[in-house]
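EI: anyone free to look at a 323-residue chain?
SC: sure, send it
EI:
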Amino acid sequence: MSTPQGKKKVIIDVDTGVDDAQAIMMALAAPNLDILAITCTHGNTSLDNACKNTLRVLKTCNREDIDVHRGCHEPMLRLTRRAGDFHGKDGLGDSPDPDAPGLDKLHKRRAVQTLIRTVKENPGEVTVVATGPLTNLACAAIQDQHFPKKLKALYIMGGNTESRGNTTACGEFNFVADPEAAYIVLDRFTCPIYITTWEFTCRNSLPWSFCDEWLAQDTHKARFMKKIYQHTMKMAKSSTYQKEVVEGPGFNTCDCYAMAAAIDESLVLETDEVAVTVELQGKYTRGMMVLDYIEVLKKERKAIILKKVDLVKFKQLLMNALK
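SC: here you go
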């Protein structure tokens, strides 16, 4: 199937918890995106749950025409991490749906092979939006050395700029969940890499009053989101979580910032370009993103770190997602 002229070819790589669901729904509502596939990975919840959750979101949005592919079920090295306390054990707020699609609805081709094949067939045309640990992308780069060179762009939600962690003292969840994968992706990919970090999303969080307005829309999608978001909202409003937020409590849908930037480039108002890597050895800093402003790393390629976005446009994309 050919992509309509003027549309961006996109693959979404997710570990579908509540915020990934929000980002997927934002992408589905964007008329300028042609979603070629959704690839799933471990992270917020188990791989099976991430796959089931993705299928459930697509059914809710009446977009079961989009193929979903099973990816990596664990990080490249060391222990698996989960975010069950925040997103619920199942990743979608522990609000099961007995009529949700089963794993038999998954495409038979695995995620890594899908990434390699799709990009090979569309060199220089495919943008990947990655909102979970980067294991699938790293494995694709290892299996096909040409893969990182053929992407049009990569948008990542992950990492941090000031060593403020939300999982470890200095680490953001997606990078901490697979530091080696994050290291490989930031080291080998030659396409433009746009990164929305933990601190950035915190500083651009929205008032809870907007969240109430967002969820109050009289649509099936809004009722679905309100149901799966109850657990996460309770956690996000707790005093413990609020202490982690860099500049005050608020509605922070982390993954949607990366998706919004991929949908509408004009939404990005300010960026910083700097060479980056990931710490792999530190006792307290393993998984932390390192920014090399004094060019010790001697890297020619710089990452594009988002600093400021148009929140009016961002809010509109969120509202559109649940219409």
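EI: Residues 8-321 form a domain with the Inosine-uridine Nucleoside N-ribohydrolase; Chain A fold (CATH 3.90.245.10).
SC: 👍
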